[in-house]
Write a structure and sequence with these properties.
By secondary structure, the chain is α/β, with parallel strands linked by helices. It has a domain of 170 residues: Bacterial extracellular solute-binding protein, family 7 (D-Maltodextrin-Binding Protein, domain 2), CATH 3.40.190.
């Protein structure tokens, strides 16, 4: 009897060891981004994965790959929906072709309605924006995904040009890379717009497929090699001052997580956003200097006339979609209601950024900006060369 009891205890012990080992097996997700490995946005994807791994104590591991490793960049959303990928890291504007309202979370000229990214992300978290974006993907597009913001946008420059632009007339006929609704905005201004993923823009500039283009910010653009194929960098732009990069999670994978791991994913995404916003201010200010001192890039002030025409063109694009699409109209109305309260408040309560900036730094021109209306000094740089292969 004792021998039999001992055998039973031993069997139970072995079973418990097996159960414990099984319980300790980490959950592993495959996540691919829409970015090249050299793109700064890949930092956001990698940072998010690292935070999840650390915060979960290794219980949830995310294996990150760059664009094209498993599926093409523009197929990430579909791949997450189908379960080819467990998660993805991308940008809502890439899904503009699936639904025009996706642009309201990525590239809206003027904010919209004057918002900067602080105002916009406040709307996302506190004004119902995140709920509406999930509903857009899940209900309108029938995508089996759950989405979380994982980094905010910085206001994007107008773009890179091979020749100086004097006024809005210079836009006519230019072959220009843009994405999201910005593509329609620039079409309305007379440009011939070409839509390309980030990794294809510089080669297209080099080959003459496009005359000019925009992608992201000084740091990301420099890593892509824009400075090797174009020398006139126009700042600022108003076509994309707000938005975010997203983490897309397959809905079945999400629902299978225990509550604590769900909380870790959500909070890791928010922490990544906060870090990445700081990272971009730090990195962009450094890399803008590098573009000037090492690559002889001319930093040009975008004429105010062009900025105003971009806003007017956006209003026409938005009006069209408001009339055509109820979901677009609903989200756009929510943004307007939020901005109607928040933007005027900030105009009253917050001093203009230029006030103190000009007081301390107005006499300096550390970025050697050529003011609008002035011709740039002749460049002595060597002819543009092909970007190094990455």
């Amino acid at each position: 009897m004792k021998k039999a009891f001992a055998l039973v205890l031993g069997f139970v012990f072995i079973l418990s060891l097996g159960t414990l080992a099984s319980a300790q097996q980490p959950i592993v997700w495959k996540m691919q981004s829409t970015w090249t490995a050299a793109d700064n946005h890949q930092v956001s994807a990698n940072t998010f994965a690292e935070k999840v791994n650390t915060m979960s104590g290794g219980r949830l591991k995310i294996e990150v790959s760059a664009a094209g490793a498993i599926v093409p960049a523009f197929e990430v959303l579909d791949a997450v929906h189908k379960g080819i990928l467990d998660a993805g890291h991308g940008w809502p504007g890439y899904w503009f072709g699936k639904h025009p309202a996706c642009t309201l979370f990525s590239s809206v000229a003027g904010g919209p309605f004057g918002m900067d990214n602080m105002d916009f992300m406040a709307w996302m978290y506190l004004g119902g924006g995140l709920k509406m974006y999930n509903e857009l993907l899940q209900n309108d597009l029938k995508m089996n995904v759950v989405v979380f913001p994982a980094s905010g946008e910085t206001a994007e420059p107008q773009g890179w040009f091979k020749k100086p632009i004097a006024d809005i007339k210079t836009f006519k006929g230019l072959k220009f890379r843009a994405a999201g609704a910005a593509s329609e905005v620039f079409k309305n201004l007379g440009m011939s717009v070409v839509i390309l993923p980030g990794g294809e823009i510089v080669p297209a500039l080099q080959r003459g497929v496009i005359d000019a283009g925009e992608f992201s910010d000084p740091s990301a653009d420099m890593k892509m090699g824009f400075q090797d194929v174009a020398k006139y960098y126009y700042n600022p732009g108003v076509h994309q001052p707000t938005g975010f990069m997203e983490v897309l999670v397959n809905k079945a994978k999400w629902e299978a997580l225990p509550a604590d791991l769900k909380a870790i994913v959500e909070n890791a995404a928010m922490a990544t956003q906060g870090f990445f916003d700081c990272f971009m201010i730090h990195q962009n200010s450094q890399d803008m200097q590098t573009l000037i001192t090492k690559h002889n890039v001319k930093i040009m002030e975008t004429p105010r006339e062009i900025l105003m025409e971009v806003l007017k063109a956006w209003d026409k694009v938005a009006e069209k979609y408001v009339k055509e699409n109820p979901t677009f109209a609903k989200i756009y109305a929510s943004q307007k209601a939020w901005a109607e309260r928040v933007v005027p408040y900030r105009r009253i309560a917050h001093p203009p950024y230029e006030l103190s900036a000009d007081y301390y730094w107005g006499a300096l021109n550390p970025y050697k900006v050529t003011k609008a209306g002035k011709l740039p000094a002749a460049t002595t740089a060597a002819p543009a060369k092909a970007p190094a292969k990455k």
